[in-house]
Amino acid sequence: MTPEALLANWNGAWQALGVASPDDALCDELQRRYAEPQRHYHTMQHLGECLAWFEREKALAEHSGEVALALWFHDAIYDVHAHDNEARSADWARQALLEAGAAADAAERVHALVMATRHDAVPQGRDAELLIDIDLSILGAERARFDEYERQVQAEYAFVPDEVRLPRRRAILQRFLDRDAIYATPRMHEQLEARARANLQRSIAG
């Protein structure tokens, strides 16, 4: 997405919440986080791809502003050596919403949406389904982009020996492949499900 499109999405999300958008410092800080040097996949490329999907599918959301802000924050904190990135990102999102004057229930829903990106359970509710479909859209990307994604994830975890990393990676991908459906929303399921399954099978086969 262009800088102008990113800013329009950011401001539109806050407007949908019924609160004034915070000053540019928060938006700039989030973009700075996504540009950190340890990131190779969880970057502005990933965020931009997610927000582009959101713009196409946002009519499905019950609370569109909350889904958009959850996307902005879902990888805000990313330490490849940590296991609480989602929790810390979710806490930051909740704090930011409350400081901006959003309702407490909205802040809690955004917190829950960010936590859903741990992918440890099948998402429940329309907003969580949409958010997770968007976060997993990379699995159904065209072959060249999926292969780039695989290289990017490998680069982020280059410090892990292959004999440890590869079995773990295959196990993660197999869990998605074992689901009855990877995508819950109708159009993303139609467009991405078959290609995602082909990509995952090819990756697992190695």
From TrEMBL:
The keyword Hydrolase applies. Keywords: Hydrolase. GO terms for molecular function: hydrolase activity. InterPro entries: HD_phosphohydro. PANTHER family: HD PHOSPHOHYDROLASE FAMILY PROTEIN-RELATED (PTHR21174:SF0), PTHR21174. This is Putative metal-dependent HD superfamily phosphohydrolase.
